Amino acid sequence: MLQAPPSHYLLTASLSQEVDHRTIEEVDIDGFTLMEVAGSSAAKKLLKDYKHAGWSHGLYLCGKGNNGGDTLVVARYLLQHDIAATIVFLSGTDDLSPDAQKNWELLQQFDDQDQLQHHKSWEAFTETDLEYSFIIDGMLGTGLDSDLRGSYTSAVQWANEQSTSVFAMDIPTGLHADTGQIMGESIQADRTFAFGGHKQGFYLEVGPAQTGDVTYCELPFPNQFKSSSNTFLLDESWVPRPTLQPGQHKYASGVLYIIAGSEGLTGAAQLAARSAWAEGLGAIILICPRGLLSIYEQTLPSIIKKPVGSKSDEHFTRQHLANVLEIIGKKEGAVLIGPGLGRQEGTIQFTNEFLSQNTRDAIIDADALWALAQQKDGWRKPDNTQWILTPHPGELGRFTDQAVADDYNRLTFVRNFSSDKQITVLSKGMPGIIGTSSGPCYLTNYNTRYFARAGNGDVLAGKIAAYVALGQEPDQSCANALLQGKQKLDSYLQDSSDLPEPKDFI
Ligand SMILES: NC(=O)C1=CN([C@@H]2O[C@H](COP(=O)(O)OP(=O)(O)OC[C@H]3O[C@@H](n4cnc5c(N)ncnc54)[C@H](OP(=O)(O)O)[C@@H]3O)[C@@H](O)[C@H]2O)[C@@H](O)CC1
Ligand SMILES: [K+]
């Protein structure tokens, strides 16, 4: 089972508020202290990372809540480094949260060189025309409760038009912490300082475009207060890589059966097989309709071929079922079924009967997903197997009558679907989402749009299947396949500005 470190737990707005609240109530670290840690850690990172930028004057846009309070802490630290501050209070200063009020008083006490100016409304500010080295967005954090109101909309629009860098405190103002949707308007930050946890919305919908780079700032929150988080950020810093045991007999270091290909679609089977083979498996056994054998004999020399049926067969049908089950019954191994199978009626019957009788762990991709979805909801995974389904958005949509309209809906659907069916689901798209049978979901944080080309799904399915055959758990296999693709993408983009092709990810 994947086990994300607390720095990679994704928080919703309500979980963020609960963690704040419980830390204050149950471990007696007060809100003022939390605010000091949040603001000072953002300030220190800013001072360190931009020390050569020659900053002289910052603009701080503050709401009346604790997000504004964090921002006043940043202003105080930067003032100590001779960076003048102009503060704009979008909702005035009469109604600041108690901790923000305290910080406003403190900030004024620190201004011994008269470097602080402030305006009590957005309208009062627009009359000035100073140049600023940077803008800090401290208007709204996790307290956002609707589309932006009042002058917040104008302030966000104005900040987005400026050429200076914009740094968001905790979350860009106007971005929904749970869904990644824009609530009327949203700050487009160059960098976001995430206090105490990444917010789920950073990685859904337009979240990545609004946050810019995300910097995690640790707060003194007990880890167990975050443990009800059920969504995690995937990255290579913590996902364990699969281990190969070189020198073992080929059948001891992972066997993968691939049931794939039909007339005109043999390329999919080949890509999946090559992709899996590149991961160092002991043996790959491609089961194919006998009529296609001669193609694979030429193109896949390292792969064992087991043809079924007669020479005129160019797609799978029910008549092949007993033979296929007999082949995979011989040696332990995992099964990848789907790439290029085709959608003939006979193939659909073959696939669904195979899946109901097969006792090997199975990776179900492409046309096998099509076949499964033809049964509507009338299918169940046999108890003693593990299944991984790898649908792209269109394929995922066939498993539900309800529209999976946005990423938040997709995340919710994937979570419910995986646990109802007791399967692992890798929902392809941006972000990629891994749903697990026990509930946790994992999100990618890189540009997966590069993978939206025909053939990449076959490569991905081959990788996942290889890792399952090497003994990794389903969730780890999916995570590793995604991260392996990311690494290949990163190294490809270093040398080329062309769009990568499936072969580049093998
Ligand atoms: N101790 C802690 O808890 C810690 C919290 N921390 C920090 O605090 C942040 C959360 O602070 P928060 O809860 O005070 O909410 P926050 O986002 O600042 O503002 C809420 C106010 O905004 C208003 N408002 C709401 N929606 C609006 C809209 N659409 N358009 C316009 N206005 C709107 C609404 O006022 P209303 O208009 O309803 O009177 C409400 O009062 C969190 O993100 C982190 O930065 C860290 O320092 C760590 C310790
Ligand atoms: K903010």
TrEMBL record:
Which superkingdom? Bacteria
Cofactor binding note: Binds 1 potassium ion per subunit.
Q: Which UniProt keywords apply?
A: ATP-binding, Isomerase, Lyase, Metal-binding, Multifunctional enzyme, NAD, NADP, Nucleotide-binding, Potassium
Pfam short name (any one): YjeF_N
Q: Which CDD domains match?
A: YXKO-related
UniProt-annotated binding residues for AMP: G457
Q: Which SUPFAM superfamilies match?
A: Ribokinase-like, YjeF N-terminal domain-like
**Limits of the YjeF C-terminal domain:** 233-506
Could you tell me which InterPro entries the record lists for this protein? Carbohydrate_kinase_pred_CS, CARKD, Nnr, Ribokinase-like, YjeF_N_dom, YjeF_N_dom_sf
The record lists K(+) as bound by N67, D137, T173
User: What is the reaction catalyzed?
Assistant: (6R)-NADPHX = (6S)-NADPHX; (6S)-NADHX + ADP = AMP + phosphate + NADH + H(+); (6R)-NADHX = (6S)-NADHX; (6S)-NADPHX + ADP = AMP + phosphate + NADPH + H(+)
Q: Which residues form the YjeF N-terminal domain?
A: 16-227
Cofactor or coenzyme needed: Mg(2+); K(+)
| Record: residues binding (6S)-NADPHX | 66-70, 141-147, 152, 170, 268, 340, 392, 458
Functionally, this protein is described as follows: Catalyzes the dehydration of the S-form of NAD(P)HX at the expense of ADP, which is converted to AMP. Together with NAD(P)HX epimerase, which catalyzes the epimerization of the S- and R-forms, the enzyme allows the repair of both epimers of NAD(P)HX, a damaged form of NAD(P)H that is a result of enzymatic or heat-dependent hydration. Catalyzes the epimerization of the S- and R-forms of NAD(P)HX, a damaged form of NAD(P)H that is a result of enzymatic or heat-dependent hydration. This is a prerequisite for the S-specific NAD(P)H-hydrate dehydratase to allow the repair of both epimers of NAD(P)HX.
Task: Give the record's family classification.
Answer: In the C-terminal section; belongs to the NnrD/CARKD family. Belongs to the NnrD/CARKD family.
Q: Which HAMAP family match?
A: NADHX_dehydratase, NADHX_epimerase
Q: Oligomeric state and partners?
A: Homotetramer.
Protein name per UniProt: Bifunctional NAD(P)H-hydrate repair enzyme
